[in-house]
Amino acid sequence: MDMTMNKKLLAVAISSAAFASQAVAIELYNEDGTTFSVGGHVSVAVGDVNSSDRQGDDDIGIESVSPRINFNVTHDIGNGFTADAKGEWALNYLDGGENAFTTRLGYLGLTHDDFGRAVAGTQWAPYYSVSGVADMPIAFANDFIYDDHGNLGTGRGEEMLSYGNSVDFGEAGTLNLGVAWQGRKVDDVSYTSTVSFENEYGNRAQIALNYSIADVTANYAFNTGDVNFGSVGSQTAESHVLSATYGSYGKEGIYLAGVYAMNEYMNSSSGIALEETTAVELLASYAFSNSINVSVNYEAVEDDKESATVYSTSALQAEYNFTSNFVGFAGYEFDLQGSGTYKDKADDKWLIGARYYL
Question: Is the pTM of this model over 0.85?
Answer without folding.
Answer: yes
